[in-house]
Amino acid sequence: MSDKTKPEIDFIEGPAPTELVITDLEVGDGAEATPGATVDVHYVGVDFETGEQFDASWDRGASIQFPLAGLIKGWQDGIPGMKVGGRRQLVVPPAQAYGPAGSGHRLGGRTLVFVIDLLGVR
């Protein structure tokens, strides 16, 4: 179990990026996530423009496990290389998140910011 607490995501100044931005907030020293891995993560997601949280595994009281292949492209591209114990921020443009506005997803057209804690890899 991690001794980390739910991260606060600082508001990011300036225009939303058009490419995925990966920032390691803490580098882990455990197993490394690979593109085909199943990961166990805690995460917080906020809207880049408003800073409003739209989802957080922390609020449900449990981490989530899933295969990277089933996730948005920003996660598929942004999590590999991360090591267990690490905390990484991803700024994900719409093309790598839920597509353009009007795509049918409530987050379509939005640039999203995630802070992800990698708890396990298999």
Automatic annotation (TrEMBL):
PROSITE patterns: FKBP_PPIASE. Coiled coil: none annotated. One of its GO terms (molecular function) is peptidyl-prolyl cis-trans isomerase activity. InterPro entries: PPIase_dom_sf, PPIase_FKBP_dom. It catalyses: [protein]-peptidylproline (omega=180) = [protein]-peptidylproline (omega=0). Keywords: Isomerase, Rotamase. Gene3D superfamilies: 3.10.50.40. It is an enzyme of class 5 (isomerase). It holds the Pfam family FKBP_C. Residues 36-122 form the PPIase FKBP-type domain. Belongs to the FKBP-type PPIase family. PANTHER family: FKBP-TYPE 22 KDA PEPTIDYL-PROLYL CIS-TRANS ISOMERASE, FKBP-TYPE PEPTIDYL-PROLYL CIS-TRANS ISOMERASE FKPA. This is Peptidyl-prolyl cis-trans isomerase. It comes from Protaetiibacter intestinalis. The lineage of its organism: Bacteria, Bacillati, Actinomycetota, Actinomycetes, Micrococcales.
